[in-house]
Amino acid sequence: MTGMSVSASGLAANRKRMAAISSNIANAQTTRTPEGGPYRKKEVVFGAEPAREYFSDILEGEMGENIKKVHAMEIVSTNKPPILKYEPNHPDANDEGYVAYPNINLTEEMAEMISASRSYEANISALNTSKSMAMKALEIGR
Amino acid sequence: MEDTTIQTLASALNFRQLRQDVISANVANAETPGYKSKVLEFEEALARAIDIDGLESMKADDKRHFKMGSGGFAMLEPSIYEDPNGISSPDGNTVDRDQEMAKMAENKILYDASVQLLNKKLAMLRQVLSDQR
């Protein structure tokens, strides 16, 4: 059943990635944030970690070390400089009349979104294969 | 039961299940920076354990001889290693998702085939048991 939980971790990680992308698209024009300044593009960092479910997996040693789950380790704010637009009447304009807008490229976000959804689908089909193998095993001796 | 067919098929099922786990892990980590694609290999080890050509076993034609070789199922170990043919992307990841999906499909078909063979074998045994009258 390790395969299924590994695929599930892939699903969860890509869901998180999807959330970050949605947040980037939704906030493409946000000039005010609680931490001050314009919204900054969020990115999810993936990391691999050994799939250990039970104590026996730890005892198993090498085999367990080789099968790794994916985990969305952290969500980072990128440090791209904001885009300045001359809008002197905007309430968030600086002294020279420029407004700092988040540096978000919508095309890039859409591409990233498609990639996340493909990854999600790939994990789904891996999960389905694991499942149907488990179901097939139940047919032994019938 | 000391039946080579059943033992072989059972081991094959076990390893194919494990291979599915390895492939699932590769697919899940297709976008993890620095992750290296893993491969599980067992065919050769299994062939050695079955020992069809009899090269691995010693002749035991005297009843005082110990049987050696052939019964290698207990020590059967698959090997997992990093795919040496993987092409590294800029972030150091070597997973080729299409290739993994193809391997997964193949593995599943062979798994199902093993289950069918096992069922046939068991059906034969059942046949033998039921025909005594």
- Helix % of chain B is 40-55%
The end-to-end span of chain A amounts to 22 Å
Strand order, main sheet of chain A: write it out.
Answer: 1-2
Mean pLDDT of chain A: 88
Work out the number of β strands of chain B. Answer: 2
Q: How are helices and strands ordered from N to C of chain A?
A: HEHHEEEH
Structural category of chain B is mainly alpha
Question: Would you tell me the structural class of the helices and strands of chain A?
Answer: alpha+beta
Gyration radius of chain A (Cα, Å) is: 22 Å
Q: Poorly predicted ranges of chain A (pLDDT <50, ≥5 residues)?
A: none
Oligomer category? heterodimer
Account of the 3D structure:
The complex is a heterodimer of chains A (142) and B (133). Chain A is an alpha+beta fold and 142 residues long. In chain A, 48% of the residues lie in helices and 19% in strands. Chain A has one domain (2-137). In chain A, the strands form two sheets. Chain A has a two-stranded antiparallel ribbon with strand order 1-2. In chain A, helix 1 (2-26) runs antiparallel to helix 4 (106-137). The model of chain A has no long low-confidence stretch (mean pLDDT 88). With 133 residues, chain B is mainly alpha-helical. Chain B has one domain. Chain B is built from three helices and two strands. In chain B, strands 1-2 form a two-stranded antiparallel ribbon. In chain B, helix 1 (4-28) packs antiparallel against helix 3 (97-130).
